[in-house]
Amino acid sequence: MMQDTSALNQQRHPIGDDESVWLFGYGSLIWKVDFPYLECRRATIYGWERRFWQGSHDHRGTLASPGRVATLIASPGMPCHGMAYRISGETLKPLDIREKNGYLRETVRLHFRDDSTASGLVYMATQDNPAFLGESPLAAIAEQIDRAHGPSGPNRDYLLNLAQALREMAVEDEHIMALERHLLALR
Questions:
Q1: Which residues are catalytic?
Q2: At 184, phi and psi to the nearest 5?
Q3: pTM of the model
Q4: How many angstroms separate the CA atoms of 109 and 147, rounded?
Q5: Secondary structure (3-state) at 111
Q6: What is the dihedral of CA 49, 98, 83, 132, to 10 degrees?
Q7: 105 phi and psi angles, rounded to 5 deg
Q8: pLDDT tens, residue by residue, 68-127
Q9: Which one, 8, 34, 50, 89, has the greatest CB density within 10 A?
Q10: 3-state SS, residue 158
């Protein structure tokens, strides 16, 4: 089941076309940057961990065979490293469509490497959306990722590209790296 959150996001956090806003990326927004941005910086948010607990019916899977993609799970004090993009409100609208399957924009405090901070937005899919799949054993998640394929390509590419991007950023994320090990052991 899908929930199109694009209109809701625009109502909850209206941003004018000529305004700019920071957007934090922790999944595909790290490695699939197919949108214009005004500035890009490494950033960290605190109190969240990346998990492959969100179903993907529209990009990396289908309704019959959903893929799994990243979302954030509350975890007090834990850092989640990613990329922050300062984008225009005009750029945000197509991203609302890209992230429409259960993801809601939330406001977060971004921490940059130079110790400065800024307020920004992040797309989060919480457990109350219909596509949320939740926790499963890592081996089962890896098997689901290995089987799933959607309009944006194989689900395994999403995981492998994210793992590689995190390595290039020198980010240790045990959940992602363990999933990658399980996935690679399947072939």
A1: 99
A2: -65, -30
A3: 0.92
A4: 36
A5: strand
A6: 0
A7: -75, 135
A8: 999 999 999 999 999 999 999 899 988 988 888 888 889 999 999 999 999 999 999 989
A9: 50
A10: helix
